[in-house]
Structure formats: C-alpha cells, structure tokens
Amino acid sequence: MVPLVRRMSNIHTRRKNPFLSICNGYANESSPSRLASPPPIQVGFTESAGRGVFANRRIGAGELIHTAKPIVSHPSLSSLHSACYFCLKKLQFKNQTEASNVPFCSYECREQSKIFYETEKQADWSAFHEYCRTQGLKYPLLVKRLACMIISGASTPETFDILQPATLSSRMILLMEKEYQLLRSTFEDAGFTDEQIAFLTKQWYIDVLARIRINSFRIELALGSYEDILLSAAASVDAEAAVGNAIYMLPSFYNHDCDPNVHILWIESVNAKLKALRDIEAGEELRICYIDASMDHDARQAILSEGFGFHCKCARSSRRTMLI
Ligand SMILES: [Zn+2]
Ligand SMILES: [Zn+2]
C-alpha cells in the first residue's frame, strides 16, 4: 500500500492498467475474472502517492467492486487449530482427534495448499512458531509460507518486489536476525540443500519483511451473511475474530483515506471483497482505510506514521488541521 496524500494531477494521462492481469499466488488467477464482467477499476499513478486505484465508470454505493485472493496468507498462531490452514475459514470438528489432524476445511483447500504444505511438513516448525509466539510476531509466518512456496516451485523470490517497501530502522533489522536464523536453520535441519534455499539470504528476508510490514492485511472475519454485509454501511467485525494475516496484490494498490469510499472485508474466508461505501464517480480514486477510522485525528496520525510511514493529508485529516 502506498500512502495517498494528494489528488492525482491528471487522470487522463494514466496508462492502461498493467497490474490487473497479475496472477495471485495461490489461485493462479485474478479474482476479478470470477465476476461476470471486468472490475470497474484501473490502477493509475497519483501525483505524489505512487500508485492508486481509480474507478473507470460510475460505481454505486454498496456495489461489490471486486474480490481478491491472497498471494500468501497464514493463520495467527492462536487460530492454528480453529481456522483452515489455507483459507482461514472457521473449522468445525466432530471430535478432538479430528481437530488435531485436519488443518483444512475441505478437500479443495487441502489440494490447493500442496504448494506450500508438502514442503512445510518436512520440517519441524516448533522452535520457529514458539519464537514467533513469545515475541508476538506474525509477519515471519508469512515469510515461512512464501519460502515453502518458493522451494516447491509455486512462487519466486521476486513475488513481492512489485509492492512498496517500508523503511526499516537499523533496530528493526537487528531484531530480524534471530527470526531469520531460525527460519533458515529450520530448513537446514530438515535436510533442504543449500541450492534449494539459496534465495533465503538475510537481505532477501529483510526486503520481504519490509514489504509485508506495510502491505499485510489483518484478517478479521465479518459477522452475518454476505447479503447483510453488502446492505449495511460498514460490516460488523468481531474484534476477537482476527484469524490471520495475508498479502494481496490489487488491494495493496489502494491508497489510504480516513473517510474511505471503499471497504475491504472478509465474510467467511481469506478471500477479500471490496465494496463501495458510497456512490463513486468515474475517474475518482478508490481508497480504503488502513486503520480503525473511528479513532480521533491524533491517534490516526500516530498509527499511520508509525505503522505506514506517512502523515495523512486526506480531506478529513486536512479539515481537522485547518481547524487548529
Ligand atoms: Zn479452507
Ligand atoms: Zn486522513
């Protein structure tokens, strides 16, 4: 995600969207293709915020703009036995034995997960998971899954290169040393060859983490049916329902606004839906809110600055600034 600060200067000069055809990692398809017609959007360039997503026709309030499957996702460690290891759907088990054996919600998810799970299950992840758990780390889990996909040939080390990286402080980089070493030694101890994990250098790890840091979505499954949620102004999200984290391609191109016109939501799985919160005119930029929009101005600015590295100058934030 790239911070939005100013309107783009001339929407007519933007190029035909080169990004919509990018395949998503898990599904090898761009999710919008599942809809009857192409999504009414294109990726363009803003004057000062890098890429942005724009409406290429009028979009009505409540309209489902497009869906998106993740490139990489991972359940939170607290959800390992209650969420599908592939799609994060809530798991229903008949008994305890089933719960400890079956991390997938369906045959389809089990099949699709082979791109990382066949590799992953060859290694013992207990020390790596334990470190993440005690340190409260969630992003290394996404790197672990990406690394497994790369080893199995389902992804490449360059997968995240198109995403904007965060600026990391030397302290942050120092803290990554241990998790990187643990990731690498987990593969080494499992007998993976130097050739298989040649991509897994410290620099690669840092570069990937820098991108995950500002492009990761925290997955909170919304309550209620899909129809209920599309009808409501904003989905009701259970704060306790954070089941994991995921990286998407297209949703990462949406800029931030504290008064967004698009809402990203998850109904029952990691597959995201982007819905118009109000009528949007052709050419208008589509923006989502990266944070809890109900926070006050100072809290929003503090989190955006710390978490995403920018000072928000959206219309809502600017109005507040002018009042001072
Ligand atoms: Zn599933
Ligand atoms: Zn703002």
Automatic annotation (TrEMBL):
GO CC annotation: nucleus
InterPro entries: H3K4_H4K5_MeTrfase (IPR050869), SET_dom (IPR001214), SET_dom_sf (IPR046341)
Highest taxon of the lineage: Eukaryota
SET domain segment(s): 39-291
Coiled coil spans: none
Listed PANTHER family: HISTONE-LYSINE N-METHYLTRANSFERASE ATXR4, HISTONE-LYSINE N-METHYLTRANSFERASE SMYD
Protein name: Histone-lysine N-methyltransferase ATXR4 isoform X1
Organism of provenance: Nicotiana tabacum
